Amino acid sequence: MDINSLRNKPFNLKDEDISWVKETFQSLTIKEKIGQLFFMVGYQKDEEFLKKLTEEIGIGGLMCRAMAKEDVIGTVSTLQSSTKVPLLISANLEAGGSGITSDGTKVGSNLAVAATNDTHYAYELGKICAREAKSVGANYSFAPVVDIDYNFHNPITNTRTFGSDPKQVKEMGAAYVKGCQENGLATSIKHFPGDGVDDRDQHLVTSVNSLSPEEWDQTYGSVYEHLIAEGAKTVMIGHIALPEYSKKLNPSLKDEDILPASLASELLNGLLREKLGFNGLIITDATTMAGMNIAMPRNELVPKSIENGCDLFLFTKNLAEDIRFMERGLEQGLLSERRLDEAVLRILGLKASLQLHKQNNIPSVQQANEILQWKDHLQKAKEVADKSITLVKEEKGVLPLSSDKYKKILLYDIENEANALGYNKASGIANAFIPLLESEGFQVTRFEPTGVYEGLQNSFEEMVKEYDLILYLCNLATKSNQTTVRIEWLNPMGVNVPNYITSIPTIFISTENPYHLLDVPRIKTYINTYGVNNFTLPLLLEKLLGKSAFKGVSPVDPFCGKWDTRL
């Protein structure tokens, strides 16, 4: 690799930047070069541990999980003030500044942004992520997700994507990249070669993108080609196999030889570097995932991930051991000095492109206070919530609601965890929404299972007499390490199943997964919100009351390709 290639897109380095890269590179020992390859994660401000990362190991960067702003700032300050080479500081900035600090703005999920049907909001999302993250010391966004949500059974893509239309994913992703990088943060388009085809999660297995090379070129390939042309600085590689393309590029491969992209030279070099022309930095997804670790022994995959084309190694199972594996790989020829040098040059090139060598990288609480949850950011979050809430289907005459028409409401809440509002109980959405309903004069009874056969005891006549409306609030969030986001009805006999839809007007609201019609196909009034921010529930109520229109446009097929879900 010629260092002068860093003058080209996406780094666009000038002479003085190249000089810094060259001088810094020449000053590094082999041990320090290896240290630069490692990208760690921080959950809390532990000065002793953080200084070990910088002073003893010399890591290349650290990802912050969402913490209070003071803890993020303290973490970054400790790191940047004790490092020889400025660090990359990242976070999963997929939905707003809330991705790095609990004091940040949650704008909305990618799917909510896509449901506005306006790329302006994807640009604003990128801009807000950059401004807020930069205020607490970050310089690198592990976003946007540019996976395509083809498979509604996939438990991890879902609301993290911009939908199932490659054109919309491409346009929304490019707008995010522009908004983020114009405001000083590098982006990482992920998860190459593309999630969303399989119904399995790469955290748990090596998942498979089973598209043919021709299909891939027209879909995921088109997305990556466009975002690379738009200047995305880095690509994050998933532990996802692309077997048909791997075999096209290397016809000698057998099924048992197929590797996840994070280890597959033919995909990293032949497809991403050569065919798509990517000249930026390549980072693995978390190397703690089973999707990578089941592919080969860890003492081999650590050095081979770099040798086969990745530049940064994200997270470790055991830091000392993984460093030892990398060093031993260099000694034994699993990692060449040429690839080590190329990776380090690109790491330094990314840092120079962000001007980290020219600026004070120590954040301040005062600066953060001026930017976090700034009124304009909150306004954009409100607009996203307003314009994304989608009325998927409607039973004639049920809406709008009023307390005169539906005085008594039976509410079923279905939740699996504390939610985006920060409630500690799994019933957080209901806890927030019931008072809003009551403030409008509704009498709300919350279904409380007792473990007996309620569904067999209550007669239909009694239910019709007792309740004017049944409302379902379903908050089943997509997350890693689960195999499905389907509804699990309560025992015994599914006592909370929608049994009364032909007798009592029933509305089903999903505040997360947009595909629940699969499990409640005969529900006649169904609404998706694609996640919840601070404005979603009040705006949802306004729409239910007819005070505001439903404006969202489904970025996926909420009917799941089934005929009965449309009834």
UniProtKB/TrEMBL annotation:
Q: Which reaction does it catalyse?
A: Hydrolysis of terminal non-reducing N-acetyl-D-hexosamine residues in N-acetyl-beta-D-hexosaminides
For this entry, list what GO says about its biological process.
Answer: carbohydrate metabolic process; peptidoglycan turnover
What InterPro entries does the entry give?
GH, Glyco_hydro_3_AS, Glyco_hydro_3_C_sf, Glyco_hydro_3_N, Glyco_hydro_3_N_sf, NagZ_Beta-hexosaminidase
Show the GO MF annotations.
beta-N-acetylhexosaminidase activity
Q: What class of enzyme is it?
A: hydrolase
Per the UniProt record, which EC number(s) apply here?
3.2.1.52
Q: Which family does it belong to?
A: Belongs to the glycosyl hydrolase 3 family.
**Protein name listed in UniProt:** beta-N-acetylhexosaminidase
Mind telling me which Gene3D superfamilies this protein's record contains? Glycoside hydrolase family 3 C-terminal domain, Glycoside hydrolase, family 3, N-terminal domain
Q: What residue stretches are annotated with the Glycoside hydrolase family 3 N-terminal domain?
A: 29-348
- Short name of one Pfam family: Glyco_hydro_3
Q: Which key words are in the record?
A: Glycosidase, Hydrolase
